[in-house]
Automatic annotation (TrEMBL):
SUPFAM superfamilies to which the protein is assigned, alphabetical: Isocitrate/Isopropylmalate dehydrogenase-like (SSF53659)
PANTHER family to which the protein is assigned, alphabetical: DECARBOXYLATING DEHYDROGENASES-ISOCITRATE, ISOPROPYLMALATE, TARTRATE, ISOCITRATE DEHYDROGENASE [NAD] SUBUNIT ALPHA, MITOCHONDRIAL
Protein's name in the database: Isocitrate dehydrogenase
Ranges in a coiled coil: none
Signal peptide: none
GO MF, one example: magnesium ion binding
Domain of life: Bacteria
């Protein structure tokens, strides 16, 4: 049986993880959940954000699904989320922005996929204090990391019958770093004559996405721009409760929702488990369990087609557990 590392995480993490595992189990797929604990709660108990047991489990299983983890603000703490992506070189962050059912979406149905470079840029955390009043943060962009994510985006576009890839930078200002990323975008595009390269500056992208998002199909960008744009894009299809993500490297993958720990609603049985459940669907596809993934997506589409089934983030009244029951019933009906 395939063993999968499960990291419930902080905030709403444990609630949505419970919901996600229940839904995956009724789909009939046989997985063994290997629970390990990391994040702020573990830090308070053990003094470590990422205990050794997490690395052991990840290195043994090579595939994981995780809830969000709190990064304490201030000195000395690196994000545990970022640390995992870096440690295992999970360089592709893939975030599909697809509207399920009738979720509140200003442009109606939408189908975009964001590829975000996941290991460098300002996220590399190379910062230094020059004086009490001056801090520097170094932006790192390399050919190797840029080329591999851009190639993933183009290959994905081709495999899925898409016709365009937008390469998003601020190359007019950051001529060396973003200039390199854009140059590589052009080089890779030359290998894909059937796919149109859209060169878009990130500020313009922010505007285009809220005015006319349907002009885009696949978007590839650096780490920080991808972070910001993916929250914006989540807003186009009903919010952060709905958008899944995958962090994929050469021989390991960690699946997680785009959203954070949602401290404002943690422990209140209000969180929307859709984003983490869709992340599990991406994991099932990765594991070759496409049938189960399809079944769960269909069930979510059906449940989210009725406003009566919405959780609070979508303007509804259903709790996490009641929403989960609806999804489980739909999976059983569709099976
Ligand atoms: P973090 O620092 O961990 O990212 P945050 O304060 O940025 O935490 P997010 O988790 O990013 O919080 O959430 C931003 C907003 O979206 C919050 O108001 C939160 O309640 C809401 N939200 C995020 N995820 C969900 C979800 N799964 N269900 C319902 N609401 C959510
Ligand atoms: Mg956040």
């Amino acid at each position: 049986m395939t063993r999968v590392t499960v990291i419930p995480g902080d905030g709403i993490g444990p609630e949505i993880t419970q919901a996600m595992t229940e839904i995956v189990e009724v789909s009939g797929v046989k997985l063994e959940w290997d629970y390990v604990y990391a994040g702020l709660k573990v830090y308070e108990e053990t003094g470590e954000l990422l205990p050794e047991s997490v690395f052991e489990s990840l290195e043994a299983n090579k595939v994981a699904i995780k809830g969000p983890m709190t990064t304490p603000i201030g000195k000395g703490f690196r994000s545990a989320n970022v640390a995992l992506r870096k440690r295992y070189d999970l360089y592709s962050n893939i975030r599909p922005i697809y509207r399920y059912g009738k979720t509140p979406a200003i442009f109606g149905d939408l189908d975009l996929v964001l590829f975000r470079e996941n290991t460098e840029d300002l996220y590399a955390g190379v910062e230094e204090q020059i004086s009490e009043h001056e801090m520097h943060s170094i932006k790192i962009i390399t050919r190797e990391s840029s080329e591999r994510i851009i190639r993933k985006a183009f290959a994905y576009a081709q495999q899925t019958g898409r016709r365009k890839v937008a390469v998003v930078t601020k190359a007019n200002i950051m001529k060396l770093t973003d200039g390199l990323f854009l140059d590589i975008g052009r080089e890779v595009a030359a290998d894909y004559p059937d796919i149109q390269l859209q060169e878009v500056l990130v500020d313009n992208m922010a505007m285009q996405l809220v005015m006319n998002p349907k002009q885009f199909e696949v978007i590839v960008t650096e780490n920080l721009y991808g972070d910001i744009l993916s929250d914006l894009m989540a807003g186009l299809i009903g919010g952060l409760g709905l958008v899944p993500g995958a962090n994929i490297g050469e021989d390991m993958a960690i699946f997680e929702a785009v959203h954070g720990t949602a401290p404002d609603i943690a422990g209140m049985n209000k969180a929307n488990p859709t984003a983490l459940t869709l992340s599990a669907c991406m994991m099932l596809d990765y594991l070759g369990e496409a049938e189960a993934a399809k079944l769960i997506r269909q069930a979510l589409d059906e449940v989210l087609s009725d406003e009566e089934h919405f959780t609070a983030d979508l303007g509804g009244t259903l709790s996490t557990t009641d929403f989960t029951k609806k999804v489980i019933a739909a999976v059983e009906r569709l099976k």
